[in-house]
């Protein structure tokens, strides 16, 4: 896949407000927050979309999800609750083609989403 703005963040070519990092996952605050807490969790090994993921990506995607949950717990967000979202392709609203989980917290979320 081609490089994206998130690849540049992983390489520290452009700045980001990084809140969590391990061998597989990087998390940083969204530039355009949609909630008081809006953090993006991305795998360091890029996958363009959820649709492009294969069985070989199962462990990495699981780690992404668990990293978001652990972060929410560590920030005291879990008891009140939060939302995780992964947008896929045009109708899903995906704009950056490097798989990412949005962690949204700090306000009550609406359902259904717009
Ligand atoms: P999505 O629409 O699901 O592909 O979400 C992409 C998100 O990425 C969007 O909420 C805005 C955020 N974003 C785009 N460019 C940058 C950037 O350069 N830095 C940061 N921190 N966030 C970005």
TrEMBL record:
Residues 5-114 form the HIT domain. Coiled coil: none annotated. It comes from the Bacteria. It comes from Dyella soli. InterPro entries: Histidine_triad_CS, Histidine_triad_HIT, HIT-like, HIT-like_sf. PANTHER family: HISTIDINE TRIAD HIT PROTEIN. A motif (Histidine triad motif) lies at residues 98-102. GO terms for molecular function: catalytic activity. This is Histidine triad nucleotide-binding protein. The active site is at residue 100.
């Amino acid at each position: 896949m081609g490089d994206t703005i998130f690849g540049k963040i992983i390489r520290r070519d452009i700045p980001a407000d990084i809140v969590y990092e391990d061998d597989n996952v990087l998390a940083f605050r969204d530039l355009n927050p949609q909630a008081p807490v809006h953090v993006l969790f991305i795998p360091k090994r890029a996958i363009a979309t959820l649709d492009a993921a294969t069985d070989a990506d199962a462990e990495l995607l699981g780690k992404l999800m668990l990293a978001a949950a652990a972060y929410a717990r560590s920030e005291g967000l879990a008891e009140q609750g939060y939302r995780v979202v992964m947008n896929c392709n045009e109708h899903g609203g995906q704009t950056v083609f490097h798989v990412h989980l949005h962690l949204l917290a700090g306000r009550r979320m609406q359902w259904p989403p717009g």
